[in-house]
Amino acid sequence: MFDHIDPRSPNPLYAQIAARVRVAVAAGSLRPGDALPSVRQLASRLRVNPATVVQAYRELEADGFVELRQGAGTFVREVRAARRAGERAPQAATVVRRMVAEAGRIGVSVDELHAAIADEIGVKAP
Amino acid sequence: MTNAVEIHELDYRAGKSFAIQDLDLTVPTGSIYGFLGPNGSGKTTTIRLILGLLRARAGTIQVLGEPMPLCAPTVLARVGFVPEQPHLDPTLTVRETMRFRAAFYAKWDGGWAEQLLHTFDLDPDHLFGKLSKGQKGKVMMLLALAQRPELLVLDEPTDGLDPVVRRDMLSALIDYVSQHGASVFISSHLVHELERMCDWIGVMDNGRLVSHMPMEQFKNGIKRLLVSEAPADAGSAPFAVLARDRNGAASETWLVRGWESGMTTWFDGHGASVQSIVDLDLEDGFVELLRTFRRAAHGQEVL
User: Model pTM?
Assistant: First the structure.
């Protein structure tokens, strides 16, 4: 779930980690009551600053996605289905924003981008 | 104690050609401080000064709250050091090397040393001199961590090692730091590794610290802008223009520092417009910073 974080991205690492958890909750691969890896485990696995993981978990806690139980760890909270679906929309917007910016940088037009997306989805769909 | 390392107005000279001048450097306690700079910029010299291995001509160095090199014996007992080149007896086995090292450190954690031996997949009966480069690197990291230091000083610990070894070493380092809250001062040319771990960045060039700030600020502050109808005079801009290059008749690429969102309005007020804003990663930012610093140092005008 955390394997493809990108330290070179302008999107800060803590935000990338938090986003991974949100998507996993939205997609149902993390369920209420599931434990997140400890700060020590995740920081060491990703070779990132422990403070970065703490910051990600705090943000998730503030958003109501997880709860920090003192001494026990960090656990996924019950998130309503509507909220879970709603969480995917901003994720999609982020993906598109990044894509459009990159397209602009290399001189790809909006029409060409549309065509490429349709093409890609057409190929990938069963 | 708020700073693990504090250097003030340090002056060091080696011969006529090399000098560290007027160095002020602070490593906040609990931070992971990435120390960047080209070869020969003075990184290793600075590290050796911090450890009391060299003597400065002027200035002060405090490490873990105590003056160096005056308090070297007590300070070094609390500092783990991984040098660029391992300098251990090649005729001792890994186990003997560990026993030898343990004798010098009161806080030596034998249990954890055994665990690291296993994690790093090292054979304790092998001679140090016969180990591969990667295995030597792991032994050096093991020795530095098992003494349970409050500060780790790492001089290019993973440079030249394969990615699997690098991962193992840095994972062990981060594991230690998250448990014990130790501070880390690490120099490396592997910029992307520092970009993951560090919350502070210092850049050396030619014996001077040319930049020193939190990582986020370093990464966010430098942008590449594509500007159309660029104004000739950028003197009133709320950001610093490090470099500008003409792309064609009506468009220029600007490299700016101290950028904040909303500053595009300055261009609007000067009949120009920003076509795109490109974020730079740490490596790009580092390279651009050095390029502009050197241009300034050579007396050329930095626009």
Answer: 0.83
